[in-house]
Structure formats: C-alpha cells, structure tokens
Design goal:
By secondary structure, the chain is of the alpha/beta class. It has 17 helices and 19 strands. Bound molecules: S-adenosyl-L-homocysteine.
Length: 461
C-alpha cells in the first residue's frame, strides 16, 4: 500500500462515524477539535459523546446502523462497529456512494487513516506507519513531543502574521531568500526563549533589510558528560550555534551534537598550561557575537558552579551583547546520582557544601575548620591531586578518620568508577590505582549508602 499524507481542512466534508465504542469516541474528539462536521450513528454512546451533542458539536443518531446507510457523496466514513460483516458491507456501499472509507478493524481496507498528531497549531506534525502499528506511532509521537517546545505554536503564529506583510513589502523572487534568512536568524530561538518583543524587533529589522546580524552568546551547561543529561534547551542551542567555544570537560558524545558546519574553537585549559587566557575567551565571545554569529560557550556541568561562567558574561553585559545562560547538571549532582550517593539524607546529612580544592603551590588553601560539620556532606571539585592533603588536613582539624569518602572517576560516563574508603585509607588506596580525570570527591556519612544504592554496573578495568 502506498500512502500520501495530506492536510485536510477540518470542515470540508462531513465525517460519518459508525459505532459508539472507545475507538469511535477517540476519532470523534479528534474530528471535533479539527472543526469537522461529525455525524455519529450508534445504538448507544458514552457520556462524553452525549455532552458533545448537547453542545451542538456533533449530530448523533441513536440506533443500530444497517448495511443500507445513505451517505452524502464525497464524505468520509469511519467504520468502527464491532461487527466485521457490517463494516465490510458498509465499506462497499459507502464507496459506491463516492465516499472515502476508514475501517478501524481492517488495516488493509482503508482509503484514509488517522495519523498520530503533535499539535502546535498552526504547526502540526503527523506520524503514520500506514496503519501498521498505532503503538509505534504513539511511541514516536511521545518521544517527539518532548523535542518540540510548546512555543513552536507562537513561532507559527508570528510567521503567519508576517506573511502578508512580507508579501506586501517584497517582490516574489526576494521572499524565499527572506524566509531563509529569517529561519536561520535568531528569531526562532528568541520565540522559543520566550522573548517575543525582541523577536518582533528583529523580524522588523530583517524585513526592512537593515540588519541581518543578531549575534547572541549562549552560555550553556553541558552537564557532567552523559549526553542524556543535557536539557532540551541546551540541545537546541548546541544544534543551532554557528561557533562553539569548548573545553576539555565537554566529551565526544556532546560534541557530536554540534552542527557539522559550525566552527569549533578549543579554549581548554590543562592545570598547568592555560591554553587560552580567560580575558581572551571573554573578548572572543563578544567579538564573534558582534559579527552577528550565534556563539555557543559550552561548559562542563553548570556554568555558574566553579565554571567562570559569571566572568565570561560580564564583558558581554558591559558591551550590551545579548546572551542566555542555560543551567546544566553540575558534577556533584551527576556523580552523586550515578554513584548512588544521595547528597542529603535525613539520617545522614541535612546540608551539603560544594568547595573547590584547587592546588596552589602544592597546597590546598581551604578553610579547613569551617568544613568540619556534623551531618554535612562535603563535595570537592578538582580535588584529585590534593586528595592526600585534603584527607590529612580534615583529620588534623578534627574530622573523624573513619569518615567515609568516595572518589567518583569520570562520573556519568560509560567508564565511570567509584572508589570508596575512609579519610584514613583513601590516600593509600588510590596510590595503587590509575585514576583518570575528571574526578569528584564526596565526603560524609552519605557515602556509606553507596554499597546499598549503587545502581550502575561498573566496567571491569
Ligand atoms: N562547572 C562544572 C565544574 C567545573 S570545575 C560543574 O558544574 O560540574 C571542574 C571539576 O568538576 C573537575 O575537576 C571535577 O572535579 C568536576 N567534574 C566535572 N565533570 C566531572 C565528571 N564527569 N566526573 C567527575 N568529576 C567531574
């Protein structure tokens, strides 16, 4: 069977629904929503159907349908009785009367079928498997629903409104080029980011041929590594950027989502070798955006947690370059979840503290005595090289040497490993192991739950 998807005006011809069961009722609702004229014939119908009839939304004929029903020529007939012979006979007769037939009990005998629909009117996405598997189309619909923000509706409305204006102002040959420029511009993203005024202003400028450039910087948290942990907005912006500035915490799984023709610029820093000075990164973000590009600054985890995200947008704010900040799952959340270590727990910790344990001149300058709190989980970012010092300083400042500690290596990635011990045993324990960055340290009684709550199988080394 070959099929052709078409979009039909809801009220073009009457729809007859024969049968009053659940399937019939679903079709009735779909049709009513589309503004169709619905005539239902069924010996009995549910309350929802009765309600629609009361509202005057449909006509109901309460009786058993017969094989000799008369239909208006050219109308659509949905056969949904529970009697296959009757459906069969009605299909033949309806076609003789010039009607199109949909049999819900026989996938082979259909002139039309109802696709699964994602409704962002005026935008609609229809999914069909030629009737082969409604379960599959429903499944796909659900998956796609999540990728299509509700705001697509507003984008559709804006474009609908603009169309007549464009027709008035631009000659036919110029229109297609305008729409291409429009779709590639920042307007769609501004609508999705719920900034309709800016979207309108930019549309107006584009239409006046004044300004094609509408650069913007997206400071996006890419999460701890597993691409599944991106937010929908992060994914959208990653896919739409013209230039991407990234560093070493952003893994290959996420880099693969960047548009093929986007420019990629590595600005990563290894501990001792600062690839690109921070001021230069800040400046380059601004420069690229001023050229009219959509600039993505991808950061591991969350951009505002030990990520210098604040510094990077300061200059943009000063220059008046527009930007968006998209939060990401920070390493502490990602590692804790994937290691089965709740950061707080009523029996173990009522607070959690994130600190960065960066080494300076081979010592960590952390406020040690402040970190020693009962019932508090301590999370240390960038702590691997200082782990021995961290353990001994905490013990020296009064933390119990038997306090559990976990080192989460490459958290949320396929080769994640969780090393656990106590403040007393950890330094020796890791000496015998090769541990790869990035690692995150979690200290506190909650770590003892790892044995019970770990849920991710670890790859053998
Ligand atoms: N902005 C980031 C943190 C940047 S600091 C965030 O919110 O997560 C970099 C430190 O984060 C690393 O040294 C390491 O301690 C931690 N980190 C980031 N990703 C990690 C991962 N996948 N596994 C373990 N630690 C990670």
């Amino acid at each position: 069977m070959m099929t052709l998807p078409l979009v039909l005006k809801g009220n073009i011809r009457p729809f007859y629904i024969i049968g009053g069961g659940e399937v019939a009722s679903r079709k009735v609702h779909t049709l009513v929503q589309a503004g169709a004229e619905v005539r239902l014939i069924a010996p009995q119908a549910g309350v929802d159907i009765a309600r629609l009839e009361q509202r005057g939304a449909i006509q109901v004929d309460v009786r058993e349908a017969t094989a000799t029903e008369q239909f208006e020529p050219g109308s659509f007939v949905v056969l949904a009785t529970d009697q296959p012979e009757l459906n069969e006979a009605l299909a033949v007769s309806a076609r003789q009367q010039g009607c199109f037939v949909c049999r819900v009990d026989d996938n082979e005998d259909n002139d039309f079928i109802f696709p699964a629909v994602i409704d962002r009117s005026p935008v609609m996405v229809a999914i069909s498997s030629r009737g082969a598997s409604p379960a599959l189309t429903r499944h796909l619909k659900q998956r796609l629903e999540a990728y299509l923000p509700q705001e697509i509706r507003q984008l559709g409305e804006l474009v609908e409104e603009l169309r007549s204006e464009v027709k008035k102002r631009l000659e036919a040959p110029l229109r297609a080029a305008f729409w291409r420029k429009f779709m590639r511009s920042n307007v769609p993203e501004l609508i999705l980011a719920r900034q309709p005024e800016r979207a309108l202003q930019l549309s107006e400028r584009l239409l006046a041929g004044k300004d094609h450039s509408s650069g913007e910087v997206y400071l996006v948290g890419a999460g701890p590594g597993d691409p599944d942990l991106l937010t929908f907005r992060a994914l959208r912006l990653i896919q739409s950027a013209d230039v991407v500035f990234y560093d070493r915490l952003v893994g290959p799984g996420i880099m693969a989502l960047i548009a093929e023709d986007a420019e990629r610029i590595y600005v990563g820093k290894a501990m001792s070798d600062h690839a690109v000075p921070q001021e230069e990164i800040n400046q380059r973000l601004a420069d690229e955006a001023k050229k009219g590009k959509r600039v993505l600054r991808l950061k591991g985890g969350d951009p505002f947690i030990f990520g210098r995200g604040g510094e990077e947008i300061e200059l943009l704010a000063q220059y008046g370059v527009p930007f968006q900040v998209v939060p990401g799952i920070t390493a502490a959340s990602g590692c804790a979840a994937y290691a089965g270590i709740p950061l707080t727990h009523r029996d173990h910790a009522q607070s959690v503290r994130f600190v960065t344990g960066h080494l300076r001149n081979n010592t960590c300058n952390l406020p040690w005595s402040e970190l020693i709190h009962p019932n508090q989980t301590l999370v240390i970012y960038m702590g691997l090289s200082g782990i021995t010092e961290i353990c001994s300083q905490l013990i020296a400042h009064g933390m119990d040497a038997s306090t559990p500690i976990a080192l989460v290596e490459k958290g949320t990635l396929p080769d994640q490993k969780v090393h656990t011990g106590t403040l007393a045993t950890m330094p020796e324990l890791i000496e015998g192991r090769t541990i790869q960055a990035p690692t995150l340290t979690i200290i506190g009684s909650v770590v003892s739950l790892h044995g019970k709550l770990a849920w991710r199988p670890e790859l053998d080394s």
